[in-house]
Structures are given as C-alpha cells and as structure tokens.
Amino acid sequence: YLDGQHKNHLEIFDNKGKFKAVLNLDGTVNQTKTDAAKGRKL
To answer: Max Cα separation, the chain?
Structure first.
C-alpha cells in the first residue's frame, strides 16, 4: 500500500499480511526502509 504518512513509497505485504519490502515510487527497492520495517504485519 502507499505509505499514508509520507506518500513517497509503497509498502509491500503478501496475501497473509506479512511484510515483504518497501519500494520507491520508481519501482526500486528502498533497502534502508525495508530493513527498518522487517517483522511488520498488516
């Protein structure tokens, strides 16, 4: 989903709500935010 606070990246979850990655709006992986968000769930 589109980050509601900053609206500058997408947070990707699988169909079970488990976090997968953070993507910039250009489609590249934002590794810093991905690492910070590991373990999150919807």
So the answer is: 25
- DSSP letter assigned to residue 17: S
Backbone angles phi, psi at 2, to 5 degrees: -75, 130
The 8-class DSSP code of residue 7 comes to -
- What phi and psi values does residue 14 have, to the nearest 5 degrees? -80, 180
Q: How confident is the model at residue 6 (pLDDT cuts 50, 70, 90)?
A: confident
Residue 26 CA: distances (Å) to CA of 9, 18, 22, 39, 40: 9, 22, 11, 24, 23
